[in-house]
Each structure stands twice: as structure tokens, then as C-alpha cells.
Amino acid sequence: MIRGVKIVSIPVSNQDVSLEFYTEKMGFKVATDQHFGPGQRWIELLIPGSDVNLALFTPPGHENRIGGFQPVTFWCDDVFATAELLKSKGVELAAEPKKEIWGTMAKFKDPDGNEFVFSSR
User: Which domain holds residue 47?
Assistant: First the structure.
């Protein structure tokens, strides 16, 4: 049986720029950074306190997935505090924190214009 999600790939155009963004601004940690075929690396990131890893990788032929809204939602304890921390590190918010009937959410953008939701659990 399926037991969970192991890796979520984030489509990126420049792995070096994305690696700096996700480690320096988002606080993720490098689990793996190794050669992965011509012109690519397999960069896998850990989110402290999470069992799900992220891969900064775009398979050849799937470059059209880079940029725009991504079907991934991150969770945090306090959306408002997280939004302020991210903004202080230079992260662009695509949507400021907003309380909804189901919870609180906001959106951030990475250097490629990928947009992600983050919300409280």
C-alpha cells in the first residue's frame, strides 16, 4: 500500500539560483546534490521537521511546468509570522495572509515565479 509522499519535485530553470533561494530564504536543508544526467543535478531538500523532501528538478521536455501556481501547499504553525519572516528575507508574497473559514493561508513566489500556498494546520 501507498504510505505517504516521499518527494515533491519543484520545476526550476536554474538549479543554483533555486538552491540558494530554498536554503537561504526558506530554511530548507540539502539532503542530496549530485550529478543526474547531462546538464542536470539531482538536488533533494529536507524541510526541517517534515518527512517529505523536495527535488529541484525539471525533467527534459517539461520546462513548460516552470512558473505559475504549483499544486503544493506547505504548512506552518503561524501564517502571519511566517509571512513576515519570509518577507524580511526578501521572499515575494503572491498573496498576503488571509483568514478563511477553513483556516489561514498566504502564497509565496520562488525565483522562477512558481507560486505556493502556505497555511496553518
Answer: 1-60
